Amino acid sequence: DVDDTIIESNAVSFIKKLKTMLSETAKTRLAFEGVDELYTKLIDDYNNPLFFVSGSSFNLYDMLTKFCEYKNIPKAPFFLRNLGLDAKQWVKQDTAPYKKEYIHEILSTFDQLDFICIGDSGQQDPEIYTEIHQKYPVRIKAIYIRHVHTQKRKEELEQIAQKLDIPLLIMEHSRDALKHAKDMGWVNE
Q1: Sheet bearing 140-146, strands edge to edge
Q2: Do β-strands 52-57 and 168-171 pair in parallel, antiparallel, or remain unpaired?
Q3: Which of 21, 26, 75, 106 could bridge 67 with an S-S bond, Cβ 3.0-4.6 Å?
Q4: How far apart are CA 16 and CA 55, in angstroms?
Q5: What is the pLDDT of residues 25-63, one digit of tens each?
Q6: Would you say residue 170 has pLDDT above 90?
Q7: Is residue 172 classed exposed, middle or buried when 0-12, 13-18 and 19+ CB atoms within 10 A define those classes?
Q8: Which tops the pLDDT comparison, 3 or 36?
Q9: Looking at residue 88, what is its pLDDT?
Q10: Whose CA is closest to 187, among 46, 71, 75, 38?
Q11: Residue 48 backbone dihedrals phi, psi, to 5 degrees
Q12: What are phi and psi of 87, to 5 degrees?
């Protein structure tokens, strides 16, 4: 994910999100502290692929790639949502079906690889990733969720985590995920 996972977007508040989108640039947008180190360690000098599947629209592609460059977040392909009008959508696709479709496509294309799904608590990432894990139970090794919402939402995520047979880490900071990945042997010191 991108919004409220690597880039502070205030996605749970429409007004704050709109203000951020209209007033901030790729250079002035804020990355969550430690995101650059976490992703750099996870990709292990590009020995492991990284994909960004986001509900953000295609018109933000240039800003997102520049943002990642400015913030030293490793290069990776962006799968972004289409805006427009057609028989299946009015202005935009729903985020959950869109994300599931692209995650399935990535997992099918790279069918020999295991994955860690990283998102945030602000929208449906935990539920989407849990469903993906149910379809690919051996290949999804962990779910890392940045907590950006209410205490009630955090408690909901804790209940989801109790039902899973893989770690669902609710992180306040990227270093929480980095520590977990190190403890699991997925990244080097």
Answers
A1: 115-120, 140-146, 168-171
A2: unpaired
A3: 26
A4: 17
A5: 889 888 999 999 999 999 999 999 999 999 888 888 999
A6: yes
A7: exposed
A8: 36
A9: 56
A10: 38
A11: -115, 135
A12: -65, -25
